DNA sequence: CCGGTAGGTTACTCCCGGTAAGATGGCGGT
DNA sequence: ACCGCCATCTTACCGGGAGTAACCTACCGG
């Protein structure tokens, strides 16, 4: 079996099995068995268990980013861009449920490597914000992106706990805060037109 | 050594050493050595490595919540409450740097147990929001609280990566989004009075 | 027909989470 | 003063899983 194909195959298995049973609960032996090979094969391709986890997270997050980017590109206003991107974010996680568990099993991983992967998402978000609010300092844009990404991730985990919260509701709650702002809501109405 | 005192001593050591070197990198033997006892002692008090981690996280988060609650109580307006609480959140993490690493090493832990601890923070935040925007459905309040807590945690991790971001700046970026809202900022000004 | 190499397997080592069984020591009762 | 009891701690061990060394095999170019 050629190298690239085998690696795709292994990452597929890793995403599935880490997502289902949790990183810490899964042995490399188990992943290997699922692929139909033996342990050392995994090590020649990914170096360590953590390396494999990283590859699996990178794959899943890249799919997620793709979905969000498509939704954002299809929007015709800043508000629609934020709302649509967020909504598709939650819907993607509904479709590919196990994948999200991966992002929660971030533990044990060298923080720097993980943050590097996450940076794709925040950089993308910051770029969208830059287009909407030109002239803002880069640090502020990044900070805003962190707020949005952090809020979405936390809402996603919350939805994992309480299944009764729909993707639409989660999106609405995010928009309340990040788009309208508490100042507007607190005065008893939606954001002023 | 009496039971309660020993437990405090062990949790102290666990917070320090897990925070410094990361949960996965630390053996129970190492924690025991730091306390000056042997491994089985830890197991009689906390049952498992994960149990000890949980106790350490609970301790650190409870301190954090206390700091935030004091700051919020001292504020004289909704905006000051949010700003002050957030600022003290970041300042606490600056003072007790290693503690925050704990929250990042959430991995490997049974999600439900961890979310239970985190719920203290979101419940507190939701209660503050309820007082400010009366008549809001409970689910929406909780959602808003998730947004704020998620944003703060993400900003905190970001600050861990990029030391040049001050607590004041992080607070400002959060207020931009959550208080003013992008709608207001996008139209080129601060939130309307 | 043959050597070399990519890709794979068997068979280990070592570390660490977790535990069983025994030592120590203070304290109340007689 | 002595004895037994309970809490507390230690030594010594088990099992499993991450990671590796050494060997095997089948394909491909000459």
Structure description:
The structure is a homodimer of 193-residue chains. Chain A contains ten helices and no strands. Chain A is mostly helical and 193 residues long. In chain A, α1 (3-21) packs across α6 (97-104). The radius of gyration of chain A is 19 Å and the shape is elongated. The first copy, chain A, starts with a helix and ends in a 7-residue tail after the last helix. Chains A and B meet through α5, α7, α8, α9 and α10 of A and α5, α7, α8, α9 and α10 of B. The structure holds a DNA duplex (30 and 30 nucleotides).
Major beta-sheet overview of chain A: none
> How many helices of chain A in DSSP terms?
10
What is the beta-strand fraction of chain A?
under 5%
Structural class of chain A: mainly alpha
CA-based gyration radius of chain A: 19 Å
Q: Characterize the overall form of chain A.
A: elongated
Percent of residues of chain A in helical segments?
Answer: over 70%
The sequence of SSEs of chain A as H and E is HHHHHHHHHH
Task: Determine the mean pLDDT of chain A.
Answer: 90
Number of strands of chain A: 0
